[in-house]
Each structure stands twice: as structure tokens, then as C-alpha cells.
Amino acid sequence: MGNPMIKVEHVSKEYRLGVIGQKIRWDRADGILQDGQTLPELYEGRMNEKGMLMALSDISFEVETGETLGIIGLNGAGKSTLLKLITKITRPSAGRILLNGHVASMIEIGTGFHPELTGRENIYLNGAILGMSVREIERKLEEIIDFSECRMFIDTPVKRYSSGMYLKLGFAVAAYLDAEVVIMDEVLSVGDAAFQNKCIQKIREISESGRTILFVSHNMNAIRSLCSRCLVLDQGKLQFDGDVESAVQRYLSVGLSTDPARDLEYQRRAFHKTQNMAHMTYIDLFGRTVFEMGEVLRFRLCFRVQRILEGLCLRSGVWSADGSAVAIGFARLADTREGENEVQICVDISRLLPGKYRLELLLVEMDDNGRMVKQDALRNAVAFEVALHKDRPAYQACNRDWGYVELPMSVE
Amino acid sequence: MEEQRNEQWKYCIEPGNGKLELGFGNLWQYRGLIYLFAKRDFMSKYRQTVLGPIWMFLSPLLTTVMFTVVFGNMAKFPTMDSVVPKKIVIPAFLFYMIGNTLWVYFANTVKAVSKTLIANARIMGKVYYPRLVSPVASALSNQMTMAVRLLLFACFLVGGVVCGRVSVHITWTVLLFPLLILQMTLLSLGVGLIISVLTVKYRDVGFMVDFCLQLWLYMTPVVYGLRLVPEKWIGLYMLNPVAPVMTTARCLCFGGGYFQIVPVLWSWAATLLLFLAGVLLFNRAEKNFVDVI
Prior knowledge:
The complex is a heterodimer of chains A (412) and B (293).
Chain A: E1 4-16, E2 52-64, E3 68-72, H1 79-86, E4 94-99, E5 103-107, H2 119-129, H3 134-148, H4 163-175, E6 181-185, H5 193-208, E7 212-216, H6 220-226, E8 229-234, E9 237-242, H7 244-253, E10 261-263, E11 278-284, E12 290-292, E13 297-305, E14 312-320, E15 325-332, E16 339-347, E17 355-366, E18 372-387, H8 399-402
Parallel strand pairs in A: 3-7, 3-8, 5-6, 6-7, 12-18
Antiparallel strand pairs in A: 1-2, 1-4, 8-9, 10-11, 11-13, 13-16, 14-15, 14-17, 17-18
Chain B: H1 2-6, E1 11-13, H2 24-29, H3 31-44, H4 54-74, H5 92-119, H6 121-124, H7 133-163, H8 177-201, H9 204-218, H10 234-237, H11 242-254, H12 261-285, H13 289-292
Helix pairs in contact in B: 3-7, 4-5, 5-7, 5-8, 5-9, 7-8, 8-9, 8-11, 8-12
């Protein structure tokens, strides 16, 4: 064990949805989805009992001194919230964060630049906002100006800068911070390729000087080349903490998958209930994701049930890749037994027009009154493609005008 | 063992709901930033104006002339706080000038401080620095403006004395003047901070500020002398913590006027109380205000 620098202990952060002070909120605590009442997909399954959105739930990890830790996840996974907590911009709702040094953040470069002030004046101002003393800035001023490549314009108000120059200057100031922990959120969106390389070089230098870096990026190559360890956040939960390559793979598998077989255990759920009676664990399309028109879709589905559910049904919805609902199928799953189950399902997709689709799977329980209670829901269970059949040249991929389904038609 | 391990950490970030802290320690560390913020406010105010810094002198002069004409010549408000010795002659112009300078400082600081959280929400959502830095910087930048105006006032006062148009009795007590400025600063910070905390959640409060400040102006002896207030109401009138500051300031500058120790002490007590309440409330609110704003 080296010297720990950051320790995050069971940290959660809740946000209230809706308009504050006007008592509007999405109230769906009972976990039953009613039609026409949907949360944005991203936030589904993240409401807690109080109707608060869990932006982060129960995150714990530790960072050693000198480590460069990558943090990846889709938009809205909670990366920025986590960084805001570590930098004290806002406080956690529960848990605590222990630090062994001063934290400096490069969240959104160039914030705090005043358009009327010159580049030089802004270096002072921005440096001071980020926690540098005036003397420190004076000492590094020349280096900062050199790094920013803006020497010619340094005495011009920054409102006349191009956006590239603006960002370069912002990065330059932040790059010369002296804090023990440096947080970088999407800093590599800066400038052209040459400047990006310079930035990566600089980040490496910072790292080699023994400082701790938290690095957030959607650029997997940057993550691969800079980080020694990586966290994957998904829906506010820490999904993975370990080596970079596995983390990147994990990140890429979040969302739409083109694999013919998929582990569903940890996929994001389309709703949240504390006690799920059923849970889908695995889907296998028998090695195919492309079907010709006229073929049927067969797959094997594994799921786990806590107790025998009499009226358990599988509902599968077909969605087009551009987000329209296309069709729905429904089948009763008879003879489920407690524990692991495996079924083979056949969906007749022979009438679907060529195009890309995804399959949504829901395990629902039908009670005696015919009411359906969701037990498990996967919005993106699997993706597949319908290809043109060689005997039917009339159907070119032209879904926008033609819809998605071919109706049987004949002359009488 | 767990306990021991905790001790090696330097900083700890916790939910911190409802904790009351003063947080002045951080402020000293960030003094450079306070200065830079204040300078930025002060400097950028007169950019893109033709007359530039001349406005610093022009606007108080114009207001004072207006006050003199409207309240002194037309409404004929008394420009004396109490009966003063015959040998002291104070022109209405100087009377209005000092009152106006102090009041404008007070009102502008309250306004600026009350908007500080909303105005800086974007940057505060991206970077952490002690939030108290912004309101203190606002007060400092207003102080710079006031310093210029006081200088102008001093020029007129000395000029008046030299020309024989003004006869005042200046004593060593004028050296206490900075104390009044300190009190004005603390009071305006306190009031402004309380308002700023309320505005984060309820923007309604922001709309009230201008109106309330105007009302406050008329309850303070700025555009009229204290002699306008009937004797029996003076006790109640002096509960307004700004009123004793005004009368005392004029007393110090002109060497005669209204000075009573009880209202001054009361005013200081109210000032300290409001300041403390403002800072505590502000520090409590700053921890999560980014989520609400």
C-alpha cells in the first residue's frame, strides 16, 4: 500500500426533480409504469423511495498518491457530480470524502475568464480563482504564456480571442496549478491535434511529478494512454474499478450492443424496484444479429426468479434504431421454477422491413385482475438488423417513408 | 485502528447539513482573489464609456446638485441635525454630498452583495473558492468608488474653508471616520448576505430589494436633517442602525451636530448581529446552493 490521497466512502448524492418551490415532481414511487408517464430513459431506475433522483449512490473507492485514475461513463452517469463533490462545489447527501491534499479542478476550462480583461489580466484572475497566489502566478507567468501559444495576443481583451485561443489559454493556466490532486474533466476537447498532443504530454508530466490526477474523458485512447486505473460509472453506480482495458470494454458495452450473446446481469434496468421478483441474466441469439427479410428471430433467454410467479409473461417490443416503437410480442412463460430458468423464444419478425432494430424485453406478472406488474425491464436487450432479401428487390432501405412493417397484400 | 487511520487525513468533506461556521480563515488565504475580483469590478465598470473615470466624479456631483435643488431649495428640508453654534456654517451642498456618498455606498453594497450568488452561479458551479470571497470583493470595489467620492468631498470641504464660504470646526475626532466606514461595510454585508441567501430559493426577494432600499433611504437622515424629525420620535427613529451613522459622520466632518452615545452603541450592536447572522446563514447555504440555484 502506498500513501492514500483520496478516499471516497459510501458517497451518495440526491437531486430533487422538477421545479423547486413549486412542488412539481415525478411521483412514481410504486414502481408501476403507467402508459404515457415516462422519465427520460437516462434517469429511469434511479428514483429512491423519497422520489429523489440518485445522481450517485453508494460510491466507494480509494486513490493512491501519484496515481492517474480514469473515470468513464455515459453522459449523465454521474461523473461530473462525483467531481463536484470532490472539489467541494456541492456537498454529498450521505457518506464522506477524505483528502490528503489540496484539490484543483480543470472542470470546463476557461470559466471565470472576464471578456473585458486582457489575456494577461485573466491569467491572474483565473489563477487566483483556481487557488494560486499572486506571487505564484507571477513566477509562472512566462511559462503559462508560452504554453498557451497566445503571446501575440496576451494584451488583447479575451473577448476578441478565437474559441481555440480561449481554451488554450484556459488549459495553460490550469496546467500550472500546484495542487496535490488535479481533476481534469474533458480537457482534451481543446484545440487542434498538435495542441492536444501537447496537453497529453503536459498531463503526463504532471503525473510524473508525483501528483494525483482524476481524468474524465470520452476519448478512450486518451484514457488508455494516460491512466493506470479506471472507474466505470453507470446510472450513478460504480460499475467497475480496475484495469483500464477491462473498464473501457465495460464502458463500450453499456448501451447498444451488437453482440449476438450478452450478459444481462448488470445491464441498466428501465425501472427500479427494491425487490425484483425476476431478473434476466443472459440472452443468446445463436450467433446471429443479421436476418434476411422473411426469417424469424430465435433466442435463448436466461432469467432468475425469487419465487414461483404464476402469471409470468415475457413482453418483447421491437424498436427501430431511430427510436420509434415498431411492434410488440407477448408470450406466457409457463413452468418457471424458483432460481435459474432458461427458455427459447421465437419472435416472428418476417414482416419487418430492412433496417436496424433493437429488442426491448420485459418480464411482467399478470395478476388475477389482468393488471400487469413489471418485474424486470431491459430497454436495450439486444440489437439486430434486418437485411434485404435477394428475391424482393422492391424494398430498399427506405424506412422513413414506408414505415417498418410490410403488410400481406394480394389481389382477390 | 479505524480511528487512527482517519487522523492522517487533512481534509474531510461531509454532508454538513445545518452546520454553522464563520469560515474567515479561508478568506485570508484567498485575499489575492478578493483583490482581483474587486479590481475587475471596479475597472470594468467604466470600459466602453467616453468619459471613463470622469464618471466617478460626475455622478456624485450631479446627484448632490439634484438633492440640493430638490430637497434643499424646493422642499426646504432643514440641513441641520441639531442646533449648532453660530460660528459653524454648513452649506446644504456639502451636507447632501457626505450623506449621499455614504448612502450610495451602503445601498450599492447591499444590492451587489444580495445578487452575488446568482451573478456568480455559473462560475461557482465549476470551481470551488470560498464563496464569501465574492460578496467581500463587491464591498471592496464599492469602497474604492466611495474613496474617490470622499476625496472629492474633502476637496470641497477644504476648498470651502479656504475660500471662507464654510466654517467648520474640525478636530481630531475626524480620525474616527474609518470606524464609520467599517460599520457601514459590516452592516451592508450582513443585510446583503441575508438577502442573497433568500434569493437563491425565492427570487421574489430580489424584486423587493430596490423598493425596500428606497424606503430605507427615506427613513434615514440623508436628504433631510435630523431636525425634521419631531423630538418625541427621535428615540424610535434612531432604531434604524444607519441613522446614527449618518448623523455621527456629519458630526465628525463638520465638528458639530447630533451625537448621542446610546444610538451609536445600539447601531453597532445591530450591525454586528446582522453581520454575524448574514455570514453564518451564507456559509450554511453555500454548501448546496449550486443544486438549488
